[in-house]
Amino acid sequence: MLIIPVERPLNWRNPPFMTLAIILINVLVFFLYQSQDTELLERAVDEYLDADLAQLEAPVYLDYLERGIRLKQDDRMELASTVAEAIEERDAEWLAYVILLDPGFYAMLVKEGTLFWQNDTYFAWQDVRSKIVENYISKISSRRVGLIPADIQLSDLVGYQFLHGGIGHLLGNMIFLFLLGFTVERALGRSKFLIAYLLCGVLSGLFFAAFDHESLVPLVGASGSISGLMGMYVAIFGLQKIRFFYFVGVYFNYFKAPALAILPVWIGKEIYDYWLGEASRVAYMAHAGGLIAGAGMVWLLGKSWLQIKEEFYEPEETEQDDEFRKRYANALSLVSQMEFTKAKARFAALYEQYPDNIGMLEHLYHLEKLDDKDDRYHQHTRQLIDDSLKKNFFSLMLETYKDYLKRVGPASQLEADYHNKVLYACLRNDAVKEAERAFENLKQHPDISPEVLKEACQVLIQDFKKRQQTMKINQYQRMMTQL
């Protein structure tokens, strides 16, 4: 059974950069640093087989497994059966891989080897085997950086979180990291998210080691840290009902439930699998520890250091879009009902809330045209021209400029600077005739200075020179001399 929270949709306008960075580091570690592991193991197996150690160790290894099963210290019954078959079939290579990767067995042989072999055999074995372990096995990434419960190092509590046992292990963890990380990162902020993520990994590793403190098998993977994100996720939403995706066998669907109600289900499942589930290499207690650590951190520090950012509780863009569409439709319906005063108030409120939506300002402009004597009409004209220029909406700018001048004529309240802005914009957009009209309006403005007109003339002359229009060049040069 699999249950995943999926309350928040992906928002690529605010990407989870820290989550993506952690994913990238995991991928690079796996393909660059861990890529040496295969070669190291193969060379160890070659030397192991050359020394004919499989024939010597395999019977002892089978006895080691069976003894652990009898004493209920080990649950690898299936492995013991497979080892027995391999011994019978003399599959030395397979036995070599299995035996070399069992550090507990090697530690037992170093300590008790003389109980199985004579002294000369033991010392000869130790000389060869120790070199294989030292030269190859100890250099495998999981042995160097993995978390070994019986020998915990501070650096390993962080390092193990970035190692993985295979491509499937990596891929599965990175998918979950992405699905959970983008929401938790948005809630906490990047730096706090990173610290909380790593701390969850540390605490889940310690929790795992507490239940298997004598084990020499290294723990690797981001599963504990990701479980911490799951704990933080549900603690952030608290008792709020959120959506969960679940998968059972071949059936999957969605359901809604209070976020925190799922936490004991997750923890209970991990503990059940640890005590009563089938034998597995999955670190269930690391998962349980991560869940408890993540949720506990939010509960304990949620009102201080780990406080949720205010913007996290703002409506998602999809919700904002729905609200905008409803209010916009309402404003348009008021226009169709000829309730123009109310419509203007609605469009003004929409523009104030959505200042990047120039369409709301355009609606206001057209509604204000109904009373072109009102100062607000002239004000919205200037504002629409300015916003159109900022957003590079040339057609809207020019249409507004021409429409305004045609409507008000000599009553225009546009400052000289606006005619100048339009002139430059027209030249940038290859609208020369419109630029000349803007120049004429500029020339007729009562407050225009000769210096501004000369500069405008010079700009037009430069443009006509590029077009090699001699008559126009001469026309504006004569005009400059008369200013």
UniProtKB/TrEMBL annotation:
Pfam families: Rhomboid. InterPro entries: Peptidase_S54_rhomboid_dom, Rhomboid-like_sf, Rhomboid_protease_S54. It is found in: Membrane. The chain crosses the membrane at residues 15-33, 94-110, 162-182, 194-211, 217-237, 244-267, 282-302. The keyword Kinase does not apply. One of its GO terms (molecular function) is peptidase activity. One of its GO terms (biological process) is proteolysis. It is a multi-pass membrane protein. Gene3D superfamilies: Rhomboid-like (1.20.1540.10). SUPFAM superfamilies: Rhomboid-like (SSF144091). Residues 153-303 form the Peptidase S54 rhomboid domain. Keywords: Hydrolase, Membrane, Protease, Transmembrane, Transmembrane helix. Belongs to the peptidase S54 family. PANTHER family: PRESENILIN-ASSOCIATED RHOMBOID-LIKE PROTEIN, MITOCHONDRIAL, RHOMBOID PROTEASE. This is Rhomboid family intramembrane serine protease. It comes from Alkalimarinus alittae.
